[in-house]
Amino acid sequence: MKKVILLFLVIPSAFLAHTQTGSISGKVFSDGGPLEFANVKIEGMEQGAVVNTEGYYRIDNVPFGELTVVASLIGYEAVRKEVRLNAANPSIRLDLSLTPLHVQLDQVVVTGTRTFKRRTQSPVMVNIVDSETLGKVQACNLSEGLKFQPGLRVETDCQTCNYTQLRMNGLGGATPRF
Q1: Distance, CA of 41 to CA of 82 (rounded, Å)
Q2: Which tens digits make up the pLDDT trace of 63-99?
Q3: Angstrom distance (rounded) from CA 131 to CA 152
Q4: Fewest CB atoms within 10 Å of the CB: 37, 90, 170, 178?
Q5: Torsion angles phi and psi, residue 35, rounded to 5
Q6: Gap between the Cα atoms of 127 and 121, Å rounded
Q7: Shared-domain flag, residues 47 and 63
Q8: Residue 133 is inside which H or E element, if any?
Q9: pLDDT for the residue 73
Q10: Closest by alpha carbon to 75, among 108, 40, 102?
Q11: What's this model's pTM, rounded to 2 decimal places?
Q12: What pLDDT shows up at residue 138?
């Protein structure tokens, strides 16, 4: 009889040991607006979630204890927050605000030489195609934007599959294909 009572005491405690988990949920935003597709993870574990289009996330089956939650997105500074999950507080709402990084990118110059050259020192003609130039010609893809560049000829060989070749003046044989 004592063994049966002991069995009834041991089995529920074994199940409770496996159910010592909770959940973390919340919203990720920047300047009041949601940041869709941001990553939220628990540091040191493989558990995490991707933020949905409304900015919400939820991570289930999180073990109890002291945890560090990390939210990140390309172009934003990552945020770390400490939380504590326990039996008294098994579900936590954690809203995270990310700050945008203000990084200015320089122009990229692509030339036909194999070494780095400044645009002003290049022995060959260099044109810069930026987003403003592509916007003026209303290009839907790169090949349409390059049609109006001097020294280039864009040829669409197959109307069905949209196979496009780029021909450069002075180059023969195999040329870049899009």
Answers
A1: 12
A2: 999 999 999 998 899 999 999 999 898 999 999 999 9
A3: 18
A4: 170
A5: -110, 95
A6: 13
A7: yes
A8: helix 131-136
A9: 94
A10: 102
A11: 0.52
A12: 76
Please tell me the distance from the alpha carbon of residue 134 to that of residue 131, in angstroms, as a whole number: 5
117/88 same-domain check:
no
Q: Note whether 96 and 26 are same-domain residues.
A: yes
Q: What is the pLDDT of residue 30?
A: 93
Sequence-ordered list of residues with C-beta below 8 angstroms from that of 47, at least 6 positions apart, any chain: 41, 59, 61, 62
Which residues in the chain come in under a pLDDT of 50? 6-7, 14, 17, 178
Q: What is the pLDDT of residue 4?
A: 52
Residues 94 and 112 in one domain: no
In degrees, to the nearest 5, what angle opens at C-alpha 32 toward C-alphas 29 and 35? 30
Of 100, 132, 157, the residue at which a domain comes to its end is 100
Domain extent for 68 = 20-100
Question: Residue 145: which of 162, 156, 131 has the closest Cα?
Answer: 131
Q: Is the dihedral of CA 31, 66, 90, 20 positive or negative?
A: positive
Tell me 160's DSSP state.
T
CB neighbourhood size of 116 (10 A): 8
Tell me, yes or no, whether 96 and 25 share the same domain.
yes
Secondary-structure breakdown of the chain: helix, strand, coil percentages, each rounded to the nearest 5: 15, 35, 45
Task: Please choose, from the candidates 52, 11, 55, the residue with its C-alpha nearest in 3D space to the C-alpha of residue 30.
Answer: 55
The amino acid sitting at 114 is R
